[in-house]
Amino acid sequence: MAQYYIIDFDSTFTQVEALDELARISLKDRPDRELIYKKIEDLTNASMEGKLSFTDSLEQRVKLLEANREHLKQLVRHLRKKVSVSFSRNSVFFKNHQDEVLIVSGGFKEFIIPVVGDYHIKKENIYANTFIFDVHDKITGYDRENPLSQEGGKVKLLRELDLQGDIFGIGDGYSDFQLKESGIIKKFFAFTENIERQSVVEKADHITPTFDEFLYLNRLPRAISYPKNRIKCLIVGNVDKEAIAQIQKEGYNIRRRDLIEDAYLQEAGVLLCTDDKQPTPEQLDNAPRLKVIGCFGRVASRKLAESACDNGVIIFDDPKYNPRNIDFIPKRVISFMNEGKTHTSCNFPDLQPPRVNNAHRLIHIHKNVPGILAKINEVFADHDINIVGEFLVTNQQIGYVITDVNTGYDTEVLELLKAIPNTIKFRLLY
């Protein structure tokens, strides 16, 4: 049976509400602009939370805009920079599912088509409102016959389309939930990467903090193998809020504690800590999910660095109070988690592999003993898997291998790679 993916635009495909942003462009010279901005934002939220009919909200917002075609051009340039991060990194999914992805929005085609068109989404699969202009290109209204301009418009439209197959809805607002309420779609996923509306979340089949999570739950191809919102990042000590913000922007599940508690460390994939709140070697022996430590200060001892290495945990550190470490440490942690780069680590051999498109990246960390690379390649050869690129670096304790392979292979391959003797850690990166 065919599957269709109905995706909202405002605060879902993009990080912002487009009409709110258009108001900031068109009204920037008005002395009372802040009051009008607030009115428009309140109208948007009231509609998205189901407290005001969409028809009333849309009509009042468009009247307040005082916008024209030139303002719309500026808005499009702005929105192209505001595509939600998890949608942006999964552009290949949209390219490969052009017939199944539909953008259904109460927004307007004039700004939606140019933005989503960059992601291979077919123009004929974009359903939205259209503005009406006067002879001076000023917006004077919109097509009121379009069902998407009316209350319950998404439900009316989907009934007209009569799609035959399983339909999944992704959005942040009440109008998206109405599709589920009507029985038209199979499941509704509340998208919370940009905003979380409690009235919508509590009625959703699933909460999806990122588009990666949606793809993961539905076993669809995705840019990263495991959604970052499922990876816990433990933050211990007085870590600068700007550094934390960078990690939050990546989508990790943040947990903050005053001390390193075993129960929290055992669940963490990432640890950010200050130099006075470092884990002990014994704690690292019991942290099976931990992949990387970002230490704001120097590592306490060589024993700790070696213990981390023995457990396949990379450490990035920097001198205490070094002004650069607010930015330096998060970037190193993110670079390792996203691409496997180990450059500037204090305990791993140095490797900075280039990113390879249309390939899967596998990371294998093992004890530095002879013959491991041969065993890895034997697994690939036995399963007719083509290696696009392979990198091996070592230190006295470990070998660190990154292999980029062509897409398409049996998951049994991953289990075989994990089972190679002397393997410390293995993961599919993307």
From TrEMBL:
GO BP annotations listed: L-serine biosynthetic process
Residue span(s) of domain ACT: 361-430
Annotated catalysed reactions: O-phospho-D-serine + H2O = D-serine + phosphate; O-phospho-L-serine + H2O = L-serine + phosphate
Cofactor needs: Mg(2+)
GO cellular component, as recorded: cytoplasm
Annotated pathway: Amino-acid biosynthesis; L-serine biosynthesis; L-serine from 3-phospho-D-glycerate: step 3/3
Molecular-function annotations in GO: L-phosphoserine phosphatase activity; magnesium ion binding
CDD domains the UniProt entry points to: ACT_3PGDH
Keywords assigned: Amino-acid biosynthesis, Hydrolase, Magnesium, Metal-binding, Serine biosynthesis
Transmembrane segments: none
EC number(s) from the headed UniProt entry: 3.1.3.3
Enzyme class, broadest EC rank: hydrolase
NCBIfam families, A to Z: HAD-SF-IB
PANTHER family documented for this protein: PHOSPHOSERINE PHOSPHATASE
Name the record gives this protein: phosphoserine phosphatase
